[in-house]
Design brief:
This protein is mainly α. It has 21 helices and five strands.
Length: about 425
């Protein structure tokens, strides 16, 4: 998404579009969009200051094909610097900073605006920017803090980097997730540092919304188990428990039909839509349900307000997920997803039973392997095959048999054939 903004004196008349070579400030939230020639055309080497987030946001093609890689940062920076005032440009990993300072990558945009303001590239009073944040009415405290952190990054970068360092005490976190008392006590009992604890807390809250407390409790018990073994072996290091916290959640909270219904009916999403289009805005959903794909419908169906009761039924039925009454349990991809979760939990047990300090890094890489799984349907099936091949090789190097008790491996072709299929 690309937006133009002109700041002019009251009563001035002119086009709101920034023309060729007219940009004073080039605010780039996604570097791949920033190096688009059509966008770079608005910059000028003697005029434009670029404020750029270097966060690597993969394209859909990169997500679908793990062999397609993000361009080198030096190439992206070179393209932007060539058409702007390179000596004044600012580059920072805005999403990483936002996550470490505020616990939420969504704050990265306002953090970047703060950098632009403090660097002198945004001629709007700071008080006016903060007032606009308040008027917007969404995540007010977090966004104001993000704006101020961005300003501080320019004025005192060492202080910001110290606060954002892994393991550093997190400052100015947004309000903690609201959790039932028993779940809160389990989060606290994990014994993680502030940054990891925050991530576990957020995921526990999401799992409650996803299916219920029982799933969140199971998740927290597994993460706590990993942390206990890890702590006894390597002390304060948390890479292994962080990998499990991230990937176990990923395999538990798959985006199935029930979850899509819950997200589409989320009151926050409705409030966002009405904020953009006004109260009573009519919503239509463009979906491609499994049942329609099975019937041979090649594209998404346009579903109007009449479909809301169906979504409500699906949302209410999410607690049946994985039970004999699960409507979608027997579809191929859903059965595979459940098998993957069961296999991953057995893999955790196998790693913990034989974990040694000398193989800590290898064990962490193995339990972080589900990060390879991407996409939906056929794309996801292909990435699962690649994941299983990777797990088989890594686990055997650690002396673990990954295929035991998992039918998924029975369907794997020989290594050479699989490499050819997933190349």
């Amino acid at each position: 998404m690309v937006s133009h903004l002109k700041v002019m004196p009251a009563g001035a008349i002119g086009s709101p579009t920034v023309g060729t070579g007219e940009a004073d400030c080039y605010l780039v939230f996604d570097a791949l969009v920033g190096v688009n020639p059509n966008n770079l055309a608005t910059t000028a080497a003697d005029k434009t200051v670029a404020i750029v987030s270097s966060t690597e946001v993969p394209t859909g093609e990169m997500v679908a094909d793990r062999h397609k890689h993000y361009p080198r940062q030096s190439d992206l920076r070179g393209a932007i610097d060539a058409g702007s005032r390179a000596n004044l440009n600012r580059y920072l990993d805005a999403q990483q900073l936002a996550e470490r300072l505020l616990g939420d990558h969504m704050a990265s945009n306002l953090l970047l605006v703060g950098v632009a303001y403090q660097a002198g590239a945004l001629p709007i009073p700071a008080g006016h920017i903060e007032q606009a944040i308040r008027l917007n009415g969404r995540a007010i405290e977090m966004n104001i803090e993000a704006f101020r952190w961005g300003r501080l990054w320019v004025a005192d970068p060492d202080r910001v980097q110290a606060a954002a360092r892994p393991g550093a005490e997190v400052i100015a976190l947004p309000e903690r997730a609201t959790l039932p008392a028993d779940i809160r006590s389990m989060v606290d009992a994990v014994g993680a540092g502030a940054e990891l604890a925050r991530r576990i807390e957020v995921r526990a809250a999401e799992l409650i919304a996803y299916q219920g407390r029982a799933l969140a409790r199971h998740y927290l018990r597994r993460v706590a188990e990993v942390r206990r073994v890890e702590s006894a072996l390597v002390g304060d290091r948390t890479e292994l428990s962080a990998a499990v916290a991230r990937n176990l959640y990923k395999l538990m909270a798959v985006k199935d039909e029930y979850e899509v219904a819950r997200l589409l009916l989320d009151p926050a999403e409705r409030a966002r839509i009405e904020g953009l289009f006004g109260a009573g805005a009519r919503v239509t959903w463009h979906l491609h349900p499994t049942i329609l794909r099975r019937l041979g419908l090649p594209r998404k169906a346009r579903l109007g307000p009449w479909f809301r009761p169906v979504l409500q039924i699906l949302r209410a039925a999410r607690r049946l997920r994985g039970s004999p009454l699960d409507l979608f349990a027997r579809t191929g991809i859903r059965a595979t997803e459940r098998a993957l979760l069961g296999h991953y939990e057995r893999l955790i047990d196998a790693v913990l039973s034989s974990l040694e300090a000398s193989r800590y890094r290898q064990a962490t890489a193995l339990l972080d392997a589900p990060d390879e799984i991407r996409g939906y349907d056929e794309v996801k099936q292909r990435s699962i095959s690649a994941y299983l091949l990777s797990v088989r090789a890594q686990a055997r190097a650690l002396g673990i048999e990954p295929a035991q008790g998992c039918a998924l491996f029975d369907e794997l072709p020989q290594d050479t054939e699989l490499r050819r299929q997933t190349a």
